[in-house]
Amino acid sequence: MHPPDSSHPLLQLLWLLVLAIPIACIAWTVTHEEVFREPREYCARRSQACRSLLQRKFFLLFTCEFCFSHYVTALFLWLTRFKLLLDDWRGYVLSFFALVFIANTYTSLYGRVRVEINVERTELKAKQQEVERNDDKADQKQ
């Protein structure tokens, strides 16, 4: 199935919102998750140590989810041939920037949720330790 043409705006909106999900997932995973930590650290070192500007920028791509999402988006546009609003090359340009925007909105939201979850876990752990200390003190008094 090919993506919808400009005569189906609601379907195009759905494609836009759905296509941005895997783009965001791939960009986040490569630039943040533990599974890619070693290659990402290598790229971070190379992005600072290379003499050539082009080489430094190339390696920087793998450390920044915003930068990397542009390349993932280009790949997904090539795979899906998704065009937004217009059926010619301008539809690709519109879809490219719209997908990058939506994907980065998703990654920003995910990042905030992750921080909130980590804060809640830390607070819960501190409360559990406090309860355990209070229990230990109560046991010692008896």
What descriptive keywords fit this protein?
142 residues; mainly alpha; 5 helices; flat
What features would you describe in this structure?
- By secondary structure, the chain is mainly α.
- The chain has one domain.
- It contains five helices and no strands.
- The chain is flat.
- The mean pLDDT is 90.
Q: What is the ordering of alpha helices and beta strands?
A: HHHHH
Distance between the termini: 73 Å
- Work out the helicity level: over 70%
The best one-word shape is flat
Total domains, how many? Answer: 1
Low-confidence stretches: none
Count of separate DSSP helical elements: 5
Strand content: under 5%
Give average pLDDT, whole number: 90
- Computed CA radius of gyration, to the nearest angstrom: 22 Å
Number of E strands: 0
Structural class: mainly alpha
Largest sheet: none
Subunit arrangement of the protein: single chain
